């Protein structure tokens, strides 16, 4: 049985840094963040929910394109960094599976987060997003290399897409990642 990544594993990753994946210094991450921002189908959003926002590195590219931004992450250490860098945005500590925030989000970002979950949590996440945010665009960014987690990127993305009522289209494949988008269920 596949399990989600434990909180203890995340605590180890963040023990000595708020940036275990080198988001701030990696050329790969900068290219991926720019590609993610370019992949968005709208130039402006009213409200964005990013699940798994980490230290806010992607939020720096997205928050300027929305009226309201809310980022969720399991760990407080990177959230403190995100709050300091983007005081106009909101950040909340949330460990999935959990109820998602209510509100009228028109964009939901799932950037390199799906393979941290297990199949049951992926199904719960997809159903919550479909039920509570049917008009939102959903953009999944997926790392295609070894994740070091029980689920790998392609597998987690397939499980999520299968559980969702949305139809996802691969917009871009970059070196080591892919971006998949689903427009809202009701337009």
UniProtKB/TrEMBL annotation:
Q: Which residues form a coiled coil?
A: none
Output the Gene3D superfamilies linked to this UniProt entry.
Vaccinia Virus protein VP39
Keyword annotations = Methyltransferase, Transferase
Example of a GO biological process term: oligosaccharide biosynthetic process
Sorted alphabetically, which InterPro entries does this protein's record hold? SAM-dependent_MTases_sf, SAM-MeTfrase_NodS-like
GO MF assignments: S-adenosylmethionine-dependent methyltransferase activity
Question: What is the designated name of this protein?
Answer: Methyltransferase
